[in-house]
Amino acid sequence: MLSSLNALLIRFEGYVHGWLVRHAITVLRVSMGAVFVGFGLLKFFPGASPAEGLVVTTIDLLSFGLIPASLALVLTATLECLIGIGLLIGRGLRLTIYLLAVQLLGILSPLVMLPGRLFSGPHHAPTLEGQYVLKDLILVAAAMVIATRFRGARITRPESSSEGIAEANRTDMRV
């Protein structure tokens, strides 16, 4: 009874793993696209984005004051929406990846340029804006995965074999 349940679980695990190998990066790309479109759209509406002040200050510093606040928000919103649409539809990924790299430099630049603003909580804990930027580290990691896939990298898995199942059974028994 226990060994048949274990075999069933191993088969189920193999099915789930196979599905993940086939679809995980597509799901990552599409979900990241939805995040970029969503956050980009917010920036088109003054006061709607919690990152609005941080965006304006960062672009002001990066452009040496040459880009006005309203234009900074429209440019950022447009860039984020274009990146999001590119990720959602999966076409023009080369351009999308390059735009994403530029955007990620802008997203992370406050860590270097505005650390006092991002980490002014008790004991230098991150503020809400700091947490917003730190969360963007996940976007960097996701972008790296998407970029490697775009360049031809693949997630692969070895074919199942009775040896692999037997090894899994032995490992499960030891735990």
TrEMBL record:
Location, primary (coarse class): membrane
Lineage: Bacteria, Bacillati, Actinomycetota, Actinomycetes, Propionibacteriales
Compartment annotation: Membrane
Topology of the protein relative to the lipid bilayer: Multi-pass membrane protein
Transmembrane region(s): 20-42, 62-88, 95-112, 132-150
An annotated GO cellular component: membrane
Organism: Kribbella italica
Keywords assigned: Membrane, Transmembrane, Transmembrane helix
Protein name: Putative membrane protein YkgB
InterPro entries from the UniProt entry: DoxX
